[in-house]
Amino acid sequence: MRKSLIDEINELENKVFEMANIINNMILIYNNYEEVLKLEDIVNRTEMDIELFAIKILALYQPEAIDLRRIITAIKVNNDLERIADHIENISRDLHLVRGETIVDLTSLIEKVMDAYKNSIDAYKNRNSKLAKETMKCDQNIDIQRDNLIRQIVEHIMQYPKDTYIALKNLSIIQNLERIADLSTNICEDVIFLVEGKIYKHGREL
After folding, report:
1. Which domain CATH number covers 57?
2. Which of 30, 119, 145, 149 could make a disulfide contact with 135, Cβ separation 3.0–4.6 Å?
3. Cβ neighbours of residue 121 under 8 Å, at least 6 residues apart?
């Protein structure tokens, strides 16, 4: 029974990693709204499949200790991944609506957020709580950069009211990027719970 349980949990985690790869592909093509929509639909179906698979394992084996932590972590990461996919779709949609036009340079923020996401997944795959904690520290820098960009956009609107629509879409993109960073932090917190059995919320141990 023990071997069967481990096999099932390994398969569950592999499903989550596959979902993470789909989202990574969404990141790579975020400028292509139609293709992002197709991948987001796959993510939605995969999220439900993973959740049902996890419930089946819980019902069949009633796992304890580290086995239970692995399943709980997979369920939580699965949920966070689905929400990240939603935010990537939002970003892609807003860029599509303004035909890629921005009034501030979003490149650096996008790179920082996507690095945070990739590092959170690497931390999960490699059971690396140190990397998870380091990645969580980046969230504050992302928040600072977000605030600076918002300030620039507000100043731009005051000078050029005709750009209000584009500005609002830019603000929406920034807010969605910030939410991806927050969800990446959630994944890092899940990794710490998995590896160390410690509960972190909002970057702090409870």
Report:
1. 1.20.58.220
2. 119
3. 17, 20, 24, 187
- Per-residue pLDDT tens digits for 89-136: 999 999 999 999 999 999 999 999 999 999 999 999 999 999 999 999
E strands, the chain, are 200-201, 204-205
Write out the DSSP string of 80-94: HHHHHHHHHHHHHHH
Q: Is 0.85 topped by the overall pTM?
A: yes
Burial class (CB in 10 A: 0-12, 13-18, 19+), 155: exposed
Tokens of 64: 């304890």
205 φ, ψ (degrees, to nearest 5): -75, 135
Tell me which residue has tokens 């197709």.
Answer: 38
Instruction: State how many domains the chain has.
Output: 1
Q: What is the DSSP letter of 163?
A: G
Partners of 204 in beta bridges: 201
Q: What range defines the domain where residue 199 resides?
A: 2-205
